[in-house]
């Protein structure tokens, strides 16, 4: 069937959803909503409606919500009440309690509730997860992430934890197949804003894998790196460029004792993989479409996003109180 889609919010993120929706097979874009109007000119003759109820009255089957996080709860609950399949941009909500209300509303409505963790559709991370599941690294020891960049002017309602760190929390659990057990974090406020702009966090997953995250909005360059270390080597994903490299543990013993003692393992072959690089947002919308049609479950569920929200709140609690939090 052709899915009649509406998009709420046509700003910095929503405009890209509009572009992708127009080229996605099996989807017809029928309504746009933004109280601020069409400031990026993506309507192409389509009227931009002032409210969600106006969009619902157009007879939509599904919606994508790309408004500031503070409005997610209100908009999502209206869509659930109308029985509309919905993809909400990350994070799910401003708080765990608000997110729980959304999850329950979509469960009760019996419609698809998805969340836009687009990094799960990054070619490098998809390939990384597949290789880990296939045993390429053997037992996993540690996952480390770096997510650093200049401050984005579009962010006004949350700090770096719920905007950027939420990606790394989600992907750490997704790649390793395990949840957070403990987390310790420290944050900083360097730009004069109410919300935090720097984070360092470390912890342990339920299966014993160590995790650490280094995240900020104050670097003069963009860094999107995920490193997974296992008993057979390391996989390194540069998600900004969608590159994946495998650093294999060497099989030849190091003859130089001082070097061997320092490195622990010898260096082996380094392989950078050739990957089919599709735009992640295209894959995300296709996964949402397929879930609605009952032919796939590759979308990020609202329950998964709620668990990620729980970890972000634990991170903020740890930074505020100065102790490690057990989840």
TrEMBL record:
A Pfam family this chain is assigned to: GFO_IDH_MocA_C3
Chain ranges of the Gfo/Idh/MocA-like oxidoreductase N-terminal domain: 3-117
GO MF annotations in UniProt: nucleotide binding
Domain GFO/IDH/MocA-like oxidoreductase residues, every copy: 126-235
The protein's name in its UniProt record: Gfo/Idh/MocA-like oxidoreductase N-terminal domain-containing protein
